[in-house]
Amino acid sequence: MSQVETFGFDKARLVGVYNKDDCDVLAPMQLPLYVDETLMMVVQFEDQVSKKWSAVHSSKREYNEFLRKYNSLDVTQLNESCGINERDLFVSLPQLVSCVGCRRAVEHLFQQVQKSDNSVYESIRVTPSGWLDISPSFKNNPKKLYHLFHCVRPKLKLFLESLRKKNKRCLFHSLKLQKSTDFSIENKPNLPKWCNCSVIDVWDQMCQECREEITMIDCGGFIETMNQYLKKHRFCSECKAKVHRAFQILTGEVDYRKEPGFSSAIYQGLKSCNATTTSDDSSTESKHIHVCCERSYIVHMLMQANAEMEGGRKERHAKTTDIAQEEVCMCIALYLHQRLHRLWHQKLTHEQTWLTLFYLGIEACWQNFEMAVQDKIGIGRMEALCEELEMEEKVKESKLEKKRMKRKRQKKKKENKPSDCVAVNEEVCRVEHGNVVKKCAEHGSGESLATFHSCLLDMLEDDESCECSQNGTSDNESPPELTQEEIEDFERNRTEIEAERFRLRERFRQDFQKFVGAANNEQ
Predict the structure, then answer these.
(1) Average pLDDT, stretch 502-520?
(2) Every domain of the chain and the residues it spans
(3) CB neighbours of residue 51 within 10 Å
């Protein structure tokens, strides 16, 4: 796949921890990100649409056509056409987005942006009443609006289509991607080429506050992970007790000085603490394990967890304290890997939802803009196409009608023709041209034939017609009526038609002179 334009959404950073109770005020281009029941972070997006619009080289012809449409609308019509309400946007949502998870996420994000006071996009905005429209800085500038409709919109469509799968579920809402055990530490072989983001890359995009928060492990949730690990590898009851006692040493419940075989180096980078949480009239104490936030230590823990996930279900034992300590560290690595993978998945899904709502807003505004221009200018593109098809059908019908009339005249002429050819020197047809009356013979030989030839030559030179040329047309039959468009087309091309007619007449006269000369020589 060629390089896909992401407009900066893949450069989103985690800039802080979000606390609902404190009612933190978010800055522009920031959104809260749900990680789990105990943790929410703040995502800082980077919208590069406004930064790149001046560097785009557009087609002059396409821009002039767009400028003609843009100038055809007044200020009120432009404001109405470059916006859409919430109900109409959600009606068009299933037609543009096939993934059910993406549709639900877009609806939730729209309502979230609608209630927030900060702006999440630079080029579009959502009002508290549910009205989505183009920002004034883009709407009042035709070059920016052209860039948004004709450069950004097609690239966004291609990007979002690259995420879709055959089963109509997008990549990030598939069940397989949500399982951390199905992927390696890097995750890159399982993702498209444009998504150069792994678990450790998300770690690099976090601020120090977020790193400290994500590496603070709650002991209550960790015990569940440790019990699942012990059950998976079928530890005996004695070994389970050793592992639990090693964990109690880490939390400070058991004095490590009284445990033979204890190694303090194994727990290096880990420390425990007791935190007190107050709510209304009650206070609760909770124990936590803090993991070292150095990048090299985190990479080591993730590699350790990755090796465990690829190892399978092997039976294990922990007969000594130091081995039990290593098993506790393994459980911490697994818990940390699961939490970072959940953060990685939530971040990418949130970024995709942010981009999908951005595309939906631009697509809906572009469609409304085109409809407003069609209503203002006149016949739209579909109506013009239908009219063109109807015109082609009329031309075909006209040609078929002319062929039928021609066959009808030929048939009538054959019915009126005598059975044997008889000289009709006495039968003449009269050709009136001013005050002069001329005669021509249809059949004959000798002197009458020569007279016929000379008569036709004189008629060609004088631009006259013979009545016998109209034998196939009845008096009551009227010529086919011409449409106004055919008449206008003839008037535009009158000079060329007359010149072509003159050339054909001259050619026909010359050819007929040759034919008359050859006929006279034969006689």
Answers:
(1) 77
(2) 9-205+344-376, 214-337, 421-470+486-523
(3) 12
